[in-house]
Amino acid sequence: MLSIATDIDALARFGRALADPIRCRILLVLRDAPAHPADLADVLGISRTRLSNHLACLRDCGLVVAVPAGRRVRYELADPRLAHALDDLRSAVIAVENDKTCIDAHQGEDCC
Prior knowledge:
The protein is of the alpha+beta class. It has 5 helices and 4 strands; from the N terminus they run ααααββαββ. The strands form 2 sheets. Strands 1-2 form a two-stranded antiparallel ribbon. The C terminus is likely disordered. It comes from Nocardiopsis suaedae.
């Protein structure tokens, strides 16, 4: 059984990855299929440099992996279960009322 600290770390890494809309879009694209960075940049409409920074974050969070593919590198979700987790999370978020704002009780600011 995993410790609470391990669970919290895993959720915090997932939350960090999802905190940015571009990283969310990358994860959703990779949910459907692995992709090369140039293709991801084109699909997302962002520069390769910006994409590279986001991919580095997602790798550091342990959510994506770089897989050598000949002379190129392909990115994919680190674990196939992440695709299911993303789908479950999307479904849960849709069930939440749209007029609610996520307020950080300690700061009095929006947390999302």
